[in-house]
Amino acid sequence: MALPVVTRARLALPALALVSVLAACGGSKNAPNDSLENFTAEEIYRQGEIALETSRKPDDALRYFQEVERLYPYTAFAKRALIMQAFALHKSKKYEEARMASQRYLDLYPGDEDAAYAQYLLALSYYDQIDDVGRDQGLTFQALKSLRDVIELYPESEYAQSAILKFDLAFDHLAAKEMEIGRFYLKRKHYTASINRFRTVVQDFQTTSHTAEALMRLVEAYLALGFVEEAQTAAAILGYNYQSSPFYDDAFTLLKGKGLKPESKGDNWLSAIYRQMIRGEWL
């Protein structure tokens, strides 16, 4: 994960000065907080940077950044220390605390050069918890909202492109969840419930990688219910957009087994999509 601008563009200190600060502080993460009161904001801040670079535990650096803000509030280094607290907390996988620190930075310094990074870090603190399709999707929705904020509020920032890529992946993740539930219902022959899930994918997640399978599952579910026209239309859309997909082969085989073929039939929600997607008829 990239560091914020203020850290990558930090003022250079002579190596001897950094070593002397390290020695003076004792390098002990267990030292009492008042042991830092004799040092300047910059010296404490640099000690936090050293801890980030050398320690395996980001929490070792967190203390220094917190002390900068406590001892030297309203200074430039206090502002830098706050964004670095958010960074260290995220690196420690303390995501809720990282979000709080990021939001506090945005509230205090909305126009600062690192505001884009704070917004991106806030989004990452949601995104990095999307680790499995089976868990609650509230975090995914929050990640999408926060990533969209990065894209819309900071389109020229260095974080916008990464936010776009992660937005697409999170969007795909939601579609995957709908597919998982739809397959669950389909396997248990709850066809109407499964159709509702696959319909959501086709209507709301057309740009994801799950659309082809959703259309094939619709063919399967509609045939099971005897809704032939819907099944044929779903296969027609599938054939038009994903003819080389194995899902189209499966759908075609299902229809052929009942003496049917893919074609737009009737006046239903799938035929409306067919007209819009293939014929360009939006009204």
Please tag this protein with its features:
2 domains; 283 residues; mainly alpha; Serine Threonine Protein Phosphatase 5, Tetratricopeptide repeat
Q: What structural class do helix, strand and pairing data support?
A: mainly alpha
**CATH overall fold name of the largest domain:** Serine Threonine Protein Phosphatase 5, Tetratricopeptide repeat
What can be said about the biggest beta sheet?
A: none
User: What is the typical, i.e. mean, pLDDT?
Assistant: 87
Principal-axis shape equals elongated
Number of beta strands: 0
Instruction: Write down the CATH class of the largest domain.
Output: Mainly Alpha
User: In total, how many domains does the architecture comprise?
Assistant: 2
- Rg of Cα set: 27 Å
- Rounded to the nearest angstrom, the distance between the terminal CA atoms is 46 Å
The run of helices and strands is HHHHHHHHHHHHHH
Poorly predicted segments: 9-32
CATH architecture tag of the largest domain: Alpha Horseshoe
Signal peptide: 1-17
Subcellular location: Cell outer membrane
Function: Part of the outer membrane protein assembly complex, which is involved in assembly and insertion of beta-barrel proteins into the outer membrane.
Protein name: Outer membrane protein assembly factor BamD
